Amino acid sequence: MEKVILSIVVFSAVAGYVRAGNCTVLGNGVFEAGCRSYLVCSGGGSNIVECPAQQVFNNATSNCDDPANVARPCGQMIDCSSQSDGRYADKDNNCLSWYTCTVFDEGLATCNWANAVAPPCGTMSG
Asked: Are 69 and 22 members of one domain?
C-alpha cells in the first residue's frame, strides 16, 4: 500500500510542476500538460504549446498528432452529446483517467459548462 501512495504523490508532484510550468524543477524537455497541450522546457524557460483543433498530444512523439495515432486516454474521442456537463470516470480505461463534458464558449474561445454559455451552444438564460 505504501508504494501505491508514494507513486500517487510523486505523480501528483510532477503533474503540479507541469501545470505551473516549473522548468527549473523539470529540466529541459517536453512534458504533457493535458491531452490538448504540452510544456516545452529549455534553459529554465517554459512555453505552453496548444495543439491545433482535432489533434491531441502524443507522448510517443512529443508532438501534437491525430487522435487515431495516440494511445489512451488522449487518443480516445468520447461523445458527450447524451451526457450532462461534468467529469466522468473513463470506465473503458479501468478508471485510470477521466473526461470532462463541456460545450464551446465562442465568447471566451474555450470550453465551458453549458449553463455558463449562451444559446445556441449552451443553456445559460438571462
From this structure: yes
d(Cα 75, Cα 35) in Å, to the nearest integer? Answer: 8
Residues 65 and 96 in one domain: no
Instruction: Show which of 77, 96, 113 is a domain's final residue.
Output: 77
Instruction: Compute the Cα dihedral for 76, 90, 49, 9 and give only its sign.
Output: negative
Domain span at 87: 78-126
How does pLDDT run across 16-61, given as a tens digit for each residue? 445 456 788 888 999 988 888 999 999 888 999 999 988 999 999 9
State whether 70 and 103 are in the same domain: no
pTM over 0.90: no
75 with 61: CB under 8 angstroms? no
> Under a CB-based contact definition with an 8 Å cutoff, are residues 119 and 103 in contact?
no
